[in-house]
Amino acid sequence: MSDLLDFVALSLLPPWYGLPAAARLREGDSPGAVLEDLAEHAARHEPGKATTLRSDAAAAIRRAAAAKVTPIAWSDPAYPVALTTIADPPPVVWIRGRIEALSAPSVAIVGSRAASPYGLAVAAQLAGDLAACGLVIVSGLARGVDSAAHRGALSAGVTVAVLGSGVDVVYPPEHAPLAREIETDGAVISELVPGTPPLPMFFPRRNRIISGLSRAVVVIEASDKSGSLITARCALEQGRDVLAVPGNVLSGRNRGAHGLLRDGAKIVESADDILEELGMGRSAGAPSGDGVGTARADNARCLLPARAANRDPVLECLTHGEPADLDAISERSGLNSSRLLPRLFELELQGLVRRVGGGRFVRIDRTC
Prior knowledge:
Elements: H1 2-11, H2 18-26, H3 31-42, H4 49-66, E1 70-73, E2 92-97, E3 106-111, H5 117-132, E4 136-139, H6 145-154, E5 159-162, H7 176-185, E6 187-190, H8 202-212, E7 216-220, H9 228-237, E8 241-245, H10 255-262, E9 266-267, H11 271-277, H12 297-300, E10 324-325, H13 326-333, H14 337-349, E11 353-356, E12 360-363
Parallel strand pairs: 3-4, 3-7, 4-5, 5-6, 7-8, 8-9
Antiparallel strand pairs: 1-2, 2-6, 10-12, 11-12
Helix pairs in contact: 1-3, 1-4, 2-3, 5-6, 8-9
């Protein structure tokens, strides 16, 4: 509980402390020690700032319990491994719904809030087809493309919504029923403590979480000033794939997406283009795009590249009983995080590795 309290208190610091906090935590410093140092720096003329932050954190934890919101600290084995690879992971993510949804292979679909009927239809179709194949669809619950992607995913599988407010303050308000539907098999998450209102400054930062959770970001109908381009930029900085759907050149609502295509983003005309880019493919046993039901981890097996565990380069990087973080595994295996995470997920499904706190993995099978 004390670690959770300190992690929540760290999340209450101004956002520019995210990078130094992450660096210190990765070096093995305790969240309490990091909090004391950064709080002192943040409030040089305000003695006891760390105590105040801990008091506010305790109040946030109580609000979460009352609202049935689950906090997941960075040190918790349930914390999304994909987020541990970004430069400034949230110290805590707050979740309503199923925690397991945060650990499955994911693709983000983002785009215009004022989407055309074409953009809405494409978002729903792509999301449904990908969800039917076992991928979790991540988006921001906004009007337009985001909500169409969530609804398309719900028709065939699982989706995750990342908010720019507390998870108990759904924005826009008319999407509250959609959020409740998402929570049934997926999750609604935020780095912001419960009760936080949807202020404009929060939305650009939440975009790094949308891309950070995902193996790839698909952009649909983004203008040249669209917030979706922030998500695409975050994805590139995080080593994720960026793809874009072409659109009407006359309306102006596609200039941002077309700019991504000119800069080398892969063109998307169907879900198969996305699966191909990720090194995945529809198997004969995978659900079709018109399938209905919840996509579970066993559906994801058909997408992951089939490799024998014997002499596996990732498995060979791990030792029995000694956890290794993603940076160490990446260095030993030569794989970047966007390629490494799916392989670790596959090995976890096979019962060959296990996740432990702080985004680390340990080998648990001795037969290979």
